[in-house]
Amino acid sequence: MSYVFNTGEALLALCENEQLPLHEVMLRRELELTDSSRAALREEMHKNLTVMRASIEEGLQAEYRSVSGLSGGDAQKLFSRASGTFMGADAARAVAAAMAVVEVNASMGKIVAAPTAGASGILPGTLLGLAEVRGWKDGSLIDALFAAAAVGVIIAANATLAGSEGGCQAETGSAAAMTAAALAHLSGAKPAVCLNAAAIALQNVLGLVCDPVAGLVECPCIKRNALGAANAMLSADLALSGVGSIIPFDETVDALRTVGRLLPSDLRETARGGLAATKTAKEITKRLGLSAQAE
Ligand code: SF4
Questions:
Q1: Secondary structure class of 268 (helix, strand, coil)
Q2: Candidates 209, 217, 272: which one to mutate for ligand 1, based on the most atoms within 8 Å of Cβ?
Q3: Whose CA is nearest to atom 6 of ligand 1?
Q4: For residues 151 and 148, what is the distance between their CA atoms, to the nearest angstrom?
């Protein structure tokens, strides 16, 4: 019996046939592909969770300024106003926590690249930002990280997680999909519902370009992580409400791959297109003594 899966369909078949939750199939996949023990794999994930928690606390406590001076302090601003926000205090705190992690990343702090440094805020910010109010303990959060990893593995195998290959849809979109699945998993949803949540999150940002101002992972990246956290919560809520994804998860991942290939290189992390090509972005780039990537 092999637990190695590369598609959503195969993952769901394993869950169904073996009557196993999403996170357990992912854990068994890792046991099969590595020399690690179950305890070691869970301990490793616990360490990730600890770093994630520390990066949120760090980003929300201090007014971080990045080396470029382009970012810092915005997570704290939203967090302070959480109870007055349109989205509601819990969601706003989760979004602020997501931003905090990327601000820490921009100031050279320690983060977990889950799945990438540019999209490192969405998964920890949303899960840990909601953990206290939802009563999620570390054991459940570790399970949820394995569930999220199952989604990430499939996207990596069939498309890409890199903005330089597939645009921001591949980076913050994938992180939002992983997070949406994790949120549904934490809410006790069946694996198929978790993949529905992931599919909706990806579909919501299909085509999103990667256009970092001055080539730095700050603008629009920090706000794209804010959007990713909100997207993940919305997508999980839709799936948990019984709103299906008309296009299945695997076909959505295929669409992500083809859209990524259709994107011109100017819109794939080269800082030559989109927001990076605006007048203001060019002024910032000149002021910082940076340049866009050459062909
Ligand atoms: S704009 Fe590009 S660098 Fe920034 S988060 Fe999106 S994919 Fe990453």
A1: strand
A2: 217
A3: 168
A4: 5
Which residue's CA is minimally distant from atom 4 of ligand 1? 221
Pocket test residue of 221, 227, 259, 267 for ligand 1, highest count of atoms within 8 A of CB? 221
Instruction: Kindly report whether the global pTM for this prediction surpasses the value 0.85.
Output: yes
Give CA separation, 198 vs 56, 64, 111, in Å.
23, 31, 23
Sequence-ordered alpha helix ranges (H) in 109-159: 122-134, 138-158
Phi, psi of 210 (to 5 degrees): -105, 110
Q: Could you give the CA distance from residue 274 to residue 209 in angstroms, rounded to a whole number?
A: 7
Mean pLDDT value across residues 280-292? 90
Domain ranges of the chain: 8-287
Question: For the segment 265-274, what is each residue's pLDDT rounded down to a tens digit?
Answer: 999 999 999 9
Pocket of ligand 1 (CB under 6 A): 118-119, 163, 168, 171-172, 210-212, 217, 220-221, 224, 269
**Spatial separation of the C-alpha atoms in residues 35 and 114, rounded to whole Å:** 22
- Residue-by-residue DSSP string for 21-45: -HHHHHHHHHHHHSS--HHHHHHHH
Q: Measure the CA–CA gap between 202 and 177, rounded to whole angstroms.
A: 6
Would the CA dihedral through 58, 60, 62, 63 be positive or negative?
A: positive
For 264, other C-beta atoms within 10 Å of its C-beta total 11
pLDDT per position as a tens digit, 147-202:
999 999 999 999 999 999 999 999 999 999 999 999 999 999 999 999 999 999 99
Our mutation pick for probing the ligand 1 site, out of 168, 218, 231, 256, counting the most ligand atoms within 8 A of Cβ, is 168
